[in-house]
């Protein structure tokens, strides 16, 4: 038998090509690849053995070996592409959502009509509850200056509380920092400023709207979500009024069998502050993935207006006092309809949406 390193190259190449043809999954390909073209493969071993040849023979053998390597690598790449293609079509087949039925049935006479989404209808219902309690409904901008979103709410630059509302900044080329609002609380400031300017105090308003945060979506969070803010500024308002409004709201919206509680919390613009929670409706308080096994779901924050906020908008804190609250609308919808994962609200799966028509 010859001792020349490449004597058996044709057979070795045939074996490699046969091995490649026998690879049936991407996982198998990942496992086999080092053996076929890696450092310990026969091709690399042969490459190293060429060092023993004289320079002319080494050059010829090197070229031959390189040619074979290219051929083997091309066969491997072609097999990979083939396997990826079939894995993709398998995934597509498994994930296929047949909308044919839905489309056809909605084309039957009478033609199907759309309906408000769950978040929109929840907002409407929440507004109705508060209108029934004597509140008016106001609107505010979704893009805010730093002043309205933070500073007027007693959150100066570099205040650690800003971390609670990490947000998206908008580049408008203006010297002032502009953000997609992180909560509906800045609308409180607009309302109080307008009431001071127009001499229309007291205020009893709710302000629903869209908010944005750099939150990673999970069972209870979205990056774009909705809140409904409440603001009361009047004479002689106390924490008991706030607690009464929240209790009345809970009973009206969730029914009498849902328990709620206020827990001491911190917000820079209210003092004292509280978090408002209800029994998790998914597990009825037993503890589940949605409520992180606590049995409770936080719906919002609330508290008595901080004197610094009244001062920022020019309201005399000796004459007026008040409270504010901010509830998550998506969270309310989630708890009312026992939706285990809030992300269902934005997935646009008609099978989900139609349950709320
Ligand atoms: C606030 O946003 C305060 N502005 C609330 C407030 C208003 C306190 C007035 C005092 C006075 P917080 O970050 O906790 O607080 O959010 C309030 C509620 O919004 C949460 O309880 C939750 O229901 C909802 N929420 C907050 N972040 C998200 C999110 N990423 N996805 C869905 N809902 C959210």
Question: Can you give keywords for this protein?
Answer:
single chain; 357 residues; alpha+beta; BirA Bifunctional Protein, domain 2; 2 domains; seven-stranded mixed sheet; three-stranded antiparallel sheet; 12 helices; elongated; binds adenosine-5'-[phenylalaninyl-phosphate]
What does this 3D model show about the protein?
- This protein is an alpha+beta fold and 357 residues long.
- 42% of the residues lie in helices and 19% in strands.
- The protein has helices spanning 9-21, 26-37, 42-49, 55-95, 100-107, 118-132, 146-149, 185-198, 239-254, 307-312, 329-336, 350-353; strands at residues 136-137, 143-145, 169-170, 178-180, 203-212, 224-234, 260-267, 270-279, 296-305, 321-328.
- The structure holds adenosine-5'-[phenylalaninyl-phosphate].
- Adenosine-5'-[phenylalaninyl-phosphate] (FA5) binds next to strand 6, strand 8, strand 9, strand 10 and helix 11.
- Residues 183, 185, 213, 215, 221-222, 225, 227, 267, 270, 273, 298-303, 324-328, 330-331 line the site of adenosine-5'-[phenylalaninyl-phosphate] (FA5).
């Amino acid at each position: 038998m010859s001792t020349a390193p490449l004597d058996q190259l044709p057979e070795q190449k045939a074996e490699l090509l046969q091995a490649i043809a026998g690879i049936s999954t991407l996982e198998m390909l990942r496992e086999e690849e080092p053996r076929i073209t890696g450092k310990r493969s026969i091709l690399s071993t042969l490459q190293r053995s060429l060092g023993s040849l004289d320079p002319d023979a080494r050059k010829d053998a090197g070229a031959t070996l390189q040619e074979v390597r290219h051929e083997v690598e091309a066969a491997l790449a072609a097999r990979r592409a083939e396997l990826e293609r079939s894995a993709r079509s398998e995934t597509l087949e498994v994930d296929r959502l047949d909308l044919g039925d839905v489309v056809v049935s909605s084309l039957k006479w009478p033609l199907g009509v759309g309906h408000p989404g769950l978040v929109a209808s929840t907002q409407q219902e929440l507004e109705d509850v508060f209108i029934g309690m004597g509140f008016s409904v106001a609107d505010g901008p979704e893009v805010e200056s730093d002043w309205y979103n933070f500073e007027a709410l007693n959150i100066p630059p570099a205040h650690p509380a800003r971390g609670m509302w990490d947000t998206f900044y908008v580049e408008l080329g203006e010297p002032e920092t502009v953000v997609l609002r992180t909560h509906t609380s800045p609308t409180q400031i607009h309302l109080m400023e307008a009431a001071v300017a127009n001499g229309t105090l007291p205020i009893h308003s709710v302000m629903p709207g869209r908010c944005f945060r750099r939150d990673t979506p999970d069972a209870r969070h979205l990056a774009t979500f909705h809140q409904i803010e409440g603001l009361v500024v009047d004479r002689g308002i106390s924490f008991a009024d706030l607690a009464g409004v929240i209790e009345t709201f809970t009973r009206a919206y969730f029914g009498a069998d849902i328990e709620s509680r206020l827990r001491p919390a911190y917000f820079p613009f209210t003092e004292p502050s509280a978090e408002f929670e209800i029994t998790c409706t998914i597990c009825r308080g037993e503890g589940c993935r949605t409520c992180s096994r606590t049995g409770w779901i936080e719906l919002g924050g609330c508290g008595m207006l901080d004197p610094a906020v009244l001062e920022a908008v020019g309201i005399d804190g000796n004459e007026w006092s008040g409270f504010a609250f901010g509830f998550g609308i998506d969270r309310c919808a989630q708890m009312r309809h026992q939706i285990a994962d809030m992300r269902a609200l934005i997935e646009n799966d008609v099978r989900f949406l139609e349950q709320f028509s």
